Amino acid sequence: MCAFAAAATLLPDLAHAYVGPGAGLTAIGTVIALFAAVLFAIVGFVWYPVKRLLRGRGSRAAGPSGEADDLDGRGSAQ
After folding, report:
1. Which of 9, 11, 50, 59 is the most buried (most CB within 10 A)?
2. Residue extents of the structural domains in the chain
3. What residues have CB less than 8 Å from 78, skipping those under 6 apart?
4. What is the pLDDT of residues 32-75, one digit of tens each?
């Protein structure tokens, strides 16, 4: 059964079909959007924890009063 499915997938016959420009562009756009969503999900799961880690290291370099360069937590002057 699996061998038949693999053979049917790997050895396709000629398909007498037409995909119009609207359906073709929709399919291409869907594939691009799917890849972009997966890429942004991976970047989000990796980048934001790293960003918070780097931001945490910067706040540890504060002076004796506990404030770094008179900036509040948002990075703007008080």
Report:
1. 59
2. 20-59
3. 70, 71, 72
4. 999 999 999 999 899 888 888 888 886 655 555 555 555 555 65
CA atoms within a 13 Å half-sphere pointing along the CA-CB vector of 33: 6
Tell me how far CA of residue 75 lies from CA of 21, 40, 47, 67, 78, in angstroms.
50, 26, 19, 11, 9
Cα dihedral sign, 15-17-21-27: negative
Backbone angles phi, psi at 74, to 5 degrees: -90, -5
Burial 31-61 (b: 16+ CB within 10 A, else e): eeeeeeeeeeeeeeeeeeeeeeeeeeeeeee
